[in-house]
Design brief:
Blueprint: H1 5-12, E1 18-25, E2 34-41, E3 44-49, E4 57-60, E5 64-70, E6 73-78, E7 81-89, H2 93-105, H3 108-126
Antiparallel strand pairs: 1-2, 1-7, 2-3, 3-4, 5-6, 6-7
Length: 149
């Protein structure tokens, strides 16, 4: 994926939906777990050395699989590159579950499905399309019509 490095750094400085110091390993470094500041911003997971302000990496949480591996360990792997697996070890099983849930909700696809669901529910309750008030044309509605249930 192409990205603008300045925009990505700017995004990394935004307030996080979730952030914590947890241990992680990256694919190219083997199974070595290192303490990192991990920060979820929109659909990016940034990771930092604990004493630095600039991220050392970022994961775009699209087309990925978030898996709870053990009681307090989860992983992120990518559908098109399953061998590219990032592992995260949390302090507790509760913290691990919170991270898994937050990461699963962070993708564009999850947000898109939620928009479709809530749009349809509002339409059932009110008889009105909630997107009409914003002047969103039928063809620009995230292809919602094709996915109605």
């Amino acid at each position: 994926m192409r990205y603008n490095e300045r925009e990505l750094l700017s995004l990394a400085r935004q307030p996080a939906e979730k952030a914590a110091e947890i241990r992680m390993s990256v694919p190219k470094k083997g199974n070595v777990l290192k303490k990192r500041l991990v920060k979820l911003v929109v659909n990016f997971l940034f990771y930092f050395r604990t004493d630095e302000a600039e991220p050392i990496g970022a994961l775009l949480l699209e087309h990925c699989k978030i898996t709870k591996e053990e009681e307090n360990v989860f992983s992120i792997s990518f559908i098109e590159e399953p061998e590219r697996k990032y592992c995260f070890e949390c302090a507790t099983k509760e913290q691990c579950q919170e991270w898994v849930e937050a990461l699963r909700r962070a993708s564009y696809e999850f947000l898109r499905r939620s928009l479709i669901f809530y749009r349809n529910e509002i339409q059932k309750m009110t008889g009105k399309d909630p997107l009409e008030q914003y002047g969103i044309s039928e063809e620009a509605r995230f292809q919602l019509g094709a996915h109605r249930q």
